[in-house]
UniProtKB/TrEMBL annotation:
Pfam families: YceI
Coiled-coil blocks: none
Record's protein name: Polyisoprenoid-binding protein
Recorded superkingdom: Bacteria
Similarity remark: Belongs to the UPF0312 family.
Domain (Lipid/polyisoprenoid-binding YceI-like) ranges: 3-173
């Protein structure tokens, strides 16, 4: 059994969505927790839980962040966290895996699959600790979770796309 402790300083969780049909709006969750239970040498047997506080959303625009926390989107007061719990991890090839699990947003749970690249381990030159790294990517249909706010554009189309792409880079300190 491997004990992993998330190194928040060296980790990130970003998202993007199509904006006005021609560009992308981007943001990040500044706070999140990843719990890992399992063995780094046998990742398909591991369990992963990711908890993301909605209040940590940051798009670089306070007004937009407030709107995202409101009832039009995440309803942060009633549903403070996004939670992903793995149900299976499948090795695709080499160091690439597919992690499938239950993703809960606004009290609605759907099965989602994310691509994970295990980057291996390394020794920290600072304190000699062992560090493990993972890159995660995937997308969800926001409308499946009741995130349906939108506006029609005068030129046709809508303000926001329905797909939200996620990209996470996670670094962990490996313990005994």
């Amino acid at each position: 059994m491997t004990n992993l402790t998330l190194d928040q300083v060296h980790s990130s969780l970003n998202f993007q969505i199509k904006h006005m049909m021609v560009s992308k709006a981007k943001g990040e969750f500044e706070t999140f927790d990843v719990e890992f239970s399992g063995d780094l040498n046998d990742l398909p047997s591991a369990q992963v839980t990711v908890t993301i506080p909605v209040t940590s959303i940051n798009t670089g625009n306070e007004q937009r962040d407030g709107h995202l926390r409101s009832g039009d989107f995440f309803e942060a007061n009633q549903y403070p966290n996004l939670v992903f719990r793995s149900t299976s991890i499948k090795k695709v090839s080499g160091d690439e895996f597919e992690v499938t699990g239950d993703f809960t947003i606004k009290g609605m749970t759907h099965q989602e699959t994310f691509t994970v690249e295990y980057n291996g381990t390394s020794k920290s030159p600072m304190d000699g600790s062992t560090i493990a790294g993972f890159d995660v990517s995937g997308k969800i249909d926001r409308e499946a979770y009741g995130l349906t706010y939108n506006a029609a554009l005068e030129t046709g189309g809508v303000l926001l796309g329905k797909d939200v792409k996620f990209e996470g880079n996670f670094e962990f300190v490996v313990g005994e």
